[in-house]
Write a structure and sequence with these properties.
Keywords: Signal. It comes from Clohesyomyces aquaticus. It holds the Pfam family DUF5703_N. The chain is an alpha+beta fold. It has a domain at about 35-290: Beta-galactosidase, Chain A, domain 5 (Distorted Sandwich), CATH 2.70.98.50. The chain has a 15-stranded antiparallel sheet that branches. A four-stranded antiparallel sheet has the order 16-24-25-26. Helix 5 (about 360-370) crosses helix 14 and helix 12 packs antiparallel against helix 13. The longest helix is centred in the middle third of the chain and has 22 residues, at about 380-400.
Length: about 700
């Protein structure tokens, strides 16, 4: 721990109570390229609402992939809606007269070319419309190509693409039989199928690409990277110096007739939508929360890159702001041709590992935890509603297989409850999920223990529990690493959920401990059969459960576990290490991990396109955990009765920072730290200032 943390209070300046000015990100946070990319792996992200684009320039053309949340086909793959290629003649954006920039503050991509030519791409945050606006110094001809690689074969079904009303219309409507039907049959649930929630039935998605300046042309064939495609081309009617193009996007579980009517309606209103409302939304988004570190140091400074890339990743989270579906951990809305991630994955551009329709709790949780402290509570609704929708199916499986409820997503229960503590979120819509999740562990394991003697593993005599009145969780699992575990520490929760089921709370077993290299440490479980994978569930009591941490009892149990546990020394570098280090106040180690995690990508051109790691590229999970770690270095809060708000618990003395973050009880903290001293701090409401502590005190 740094010595400066012990004396921070001495240096605190006078509390500033003046209104906080709206923030503007430094222009140096923009990502700008003066050369074209080699392929789609050299793309940059753009988006809004729930639409994502990969934008790049290649061989003197401008291209972008289109993705939208919820575009799940018959195989539960999350399909892209195609690729657009823009070709100009003469071309003001040819190599040598070219710049591509992500304008972060305003949320759009700008191409600058010869003769002050500009092409702006932006996505309307409030309406599902992509806009392309071209201004050139001379008249140019424009070809806009909508490419599709969706063809009928043994396992996939083609989109329907046609010229329509002067533009190009593409639609995919799921057939009556989908992978849902096969899965239900495989799981012996066919007799209940008609009552089950099914996200694939009649799922329909597509687009309408049009412009008054363009007219239908030819349908052509082509090949990009390793994928054959067909292209529907729109051509200039006459050369012009100014063009406005629109692509209207749609997705819903509805009939094709209703879908087409919805696209028509959206297209008619799109021409009246200006960019000003979208820009205002992005400005309010940046003012909502920020962490800007050594912002005047410039790109050569690693700490500057931490702050810059944190904000860029938050931009990507903001692109899914109004989505019905969570931002996916394995690529989000920005996957590209998969051979650039894995040379053996010679599939179409919509492919990603772990598929498109799976939202694994173990991975998704790290994408959504940082949204509490960034104040992006509205973005969390898509993840919370996801569990609300699937709860009935989980309950059905539990009744059929075990005669009781079924669910497994403890952290999202805790996340919902913490959102309530942060903002007063109404949890009543999620109570069925919350109660179902908590009751599962009690009812399921009690039932299992009546079937077999599970207690010999721990040398206990079977009664109704483990002999001391506590619930026994066996057979369990310590994350994905410790198999057939008995009372795994990653499952035992001591913080949060205290207002529910007081009897169950009383019976939750103690977090297991053991000695490693002569030091008391947290044990992964009271017993287990084998180790597989590389996670460290021993430290889940640090995060997410908050049983150990700064200001909490027995912190050395946690630090000993990280430093002396012989089974996990080779597992360091895990997704969550930086979070644990920050919560334990190990500043130097947290700093080093953070510098590494937020450094620019060395694999892909865009700085926060990393991976595949354990997931895919871009690895959204990676930056979700990095966001949590950075926030925890600066601000630590606790659930339930502990109202303490700790600032700079693991913050390096040489990192100057301006920040705006959130804490429980509708608390906002806006501050400035220079040289290890809090120079400015505004806490609202002001009554919460008394709950603020500093450093490791």
């Amino acid at each position: 721990m740094l010595a400066f943390a012990l004396s921070l209070v001495v240096y605190l300046s006078v509390l500033f109570t003046a209104p906080v000015r709206a923030i503007r990100l430094p222009d140096t946070y923009d990502v700008s390229w003066t050369t074209q990319s080699n392929n789609s792996a050299g793309s940059m992200p753009l988006g809004g609402g729930d639409i994502g684009l990969n934008v790049w320039s290649e061989n003197d053309t401008i291209l972008f992939y289109i993705a939208k949340s919820g575009t799940f086909d018959e195989n539960n793959s999350m399909l892209k809606l195609g690729r657009v290629r823009l070709t100009l003649d003469p071309n003001p954006f040819a190599a040598g007269t070219f710049r591509q920039t992500l304008k972060l503050n305003d949320g759009y991509v700008l191409f600058d070319g010869a003769g002050n030519a500009t092409m702006k791409l932006w996505v309307d945050v409030f309406h599902p419309v992509i806009h392309v606006e071209l201004e050139a110094a001379q008249d140019v001809m424009l070809n806009q190509e909508q490419s599709s690689w969706s063809f009928d074969n043994a396992t996939t079904y083609a989109d329907v693409t046609t010229f329509h009303d002067g533009g190009v219309r593409m639609m995919h409507h799921n057939l009556d039989t989908t992978v849902f039907d096969f899965t239900v049959a495989q799981q012996h649930l066919s007799e209940y199928k008609s009552t089950m929630y099914n996200p694939l039935t009649a799922n329909t998605f597509g687009l309408w690409m049009s412009s008054p300046d363009l007219a239908p042309g030819n349908v052509t064939d082509g090949h990009y990277v390793n994928t054959n495609f067909k292209a529907w081309n729109l051509y200039s009617k006459t050369a012009k110096s100014s063009y406005n193009l629109q692509i209207v996007i749609g997705q819903a579980q509805e009939s094709t007739k209703t879908f087409h009517a919805s696209l028509d309606s959206a297209a008619k209103s799109a021409c009246n939508n200006s960019q000003s409302d979208t820009i205002k939304w992005w400005h309010s988004f940046w003012d909502r929360s920020y962490i800007m570190i050594n912002e005047n140091a410039g790109p050569a400074d690693g700490t500057f890159q931490v702050g810059k890339n944190y904000q860029i990743f938050r931009f990507m989270q903001g692109c899914n702001s109004f989505s019905e579906w969570p931002l996916k951990f394995n690529g989000g809305l920005w996957t590209f041709d998969p051979v650039f991630v894995n040379p053996d994955a010679a599939f179409t551009p919509g492919y990603r590992r772990w598929t498109g329709g799976i939202f694994t709790a173990q991975n998704q949780r790290l994408v959504y935890w940082p949204l509490l402290k960034s104040g992006d509570f509205d973005f969390m609704k898509s993840q919370f509603d996801y569990y609300k929708r699937i709860t009935s199916n989980a309950q059905l499986r539990g009744r059929v297989y075990f005669g009781q409820r079924n669910n497994t997503a403890n952290e999202f229960v805790d996340m919902i409850l913490q959102a309530n503590m942060f903002t007063g979120l109404d949890v009543s819509p999620y109570m069925d999920f919350i109660e179902n999740q908590i009751m599962w562990f009690d009812q399921f394991y009690r039932q299992q223990h009546l079937k077999a003697d599970a207690f010999s593993l721990a040398g206990l005599k079977y009664e109704s529990d483990n002999g001391n009145g506590s619930l026994v969780i066996y057979p369990g699992r310590g994350a994905e690493t410790y198999k057939t575990a008995y009372n795994p520490s990653s499952t035992i929760i001591h913080q949060g959920n205290r207002s529910y089921f007081e009897d169950l709370l009383r019976r939750i077993p103690e977090t297991p401990l053991r000695f490693q290299q002569g030091k008391p440490c947290i044990s992964p479980a009271q017993g287990y059969s084998r180790i597989q994978n590389t996670e460290i569930p021993q430290l889940y009591p640090v995060f997410p459960w908050g049983e150990y941490g700064l200001g909490m009892p027995n912190l050395t149990f946690a630090t000993n576990t990280y430093e002396y546990d012989t089974e996990t020394q080779d597992f360091h570098g895990n997704n969550q290490d930086v979070i644990w280090l920050a919560r334990m106040g190990l500043t130097t180690q947290a700093k080093n991990y953070t510098l590494h995690r937020w450094s620019d990508s060395t694999i892909y051109r865009f700085p926060v396109f990393k991976g595949p790691n354990y997931d895919w590229s871009p690895d959204i999970n990676h930056f979700g955990s990095a966001s949590i770690g950075l926030q925890e270095m600066l601000l630590q809060t606790f659930a339930a009765k502990n109202t303490q708000t700790r600032l700079m618990g693991a913050w390096p003395a040489d990192w100057a920072v301006k920040f705006k973050l959130y804490a429980p009880m509708n608390t906002t903290l806006v501050g400035k730290v220079v040289g290890g001293k809090m120079e400015e701090l505004v806490v609202g409401p002001k009554e919460r200032m008394g709950d603020v502590v500093y450093g490791t005190e």
